[in-house]
Amino acid sequence: MTTPIFGPVIQHAFAVRDMDAALTYWTEVMGVGPFYRVNEASYQSALYRGAPSQPKYSVALAYWGDTQIELVMPTADEPSIYKEFLEEGHHGLMHHMCVTVDDMDAFRSRIEGRGFEALAALKLEPKGEVLYLRGKGQKWPLIEVGQFPQTIYDFFDLAKSASVNWDGSDPVRSL
Predict the structure, then answer these.
(1) 20-44: per-residue pLDDT in tens?
(2) Cβ–Cβ contacts within 10 Å for residue 102, how many?
(3) Contacts of 140 by beta carbon, 8 Å cutoff, 6+ apart
(4) Domains of the chain from N-terminus onward
(5) DSSP per-residue codes, 123-149
(6) Residues 31-84: tens digit of each pLDDT
(7) What are the φ and ψ backbone dihedral angles of 19, each rounded to 5 degrees?
(8) CA quadruple 12, 5, 131, 147: dihedral, nearest 10
(9) Among 29, 44, 87, 103, which is 20 to 30 Å from 128 by CA?
């Protein structure tokens, strides 16, 4: 019996060229919401394919039952996994699935030698870390592995609570 390498998927993320259009689709057509939007998200530090990068994004997050739906749109011309995805013509498609870990160093040791390629590594403010991986032979979607600070989990709880019995009002909330 094999043991899964990753824990449960908590999020499905989609890279988009037009955040407003994507939010309209997800809230009005799919009935998912409310979305919490950050217009200029950035990171303490970022590596893209091993080189420093300073990507910026507009991000929106909501819950569809127990699953997070994340919409991401690059807002700077810096190289990034999202820009690469969109340049390949994949607008609106699933970019990655997110799983979480308690110890990123232990996770890295667990996957060493298993054929995973790290496309991006991000350091979060005030602490935390994210890796974007793909398995050997895989192109898209990626796997996001996050070791998040408690403030991020608190935000996830807020967004999930807001989705329970959401009546369609105030569909996009800015942070």
Answers:
(1) 999 999 999 999 999 999 998 878 8
(2) 9
(3) 85, 90, 93, 94, 95, 134
(4) 11-165 (3.10.180.10)
(5) EPSSS-EEEEEE-TT--SSEEEEEE--
(6) 999 999 999 887 888 899 999 998 889 999 999 999 999 999 999 888 999 999
(7) -65, -40
(8) 90
(9) 87
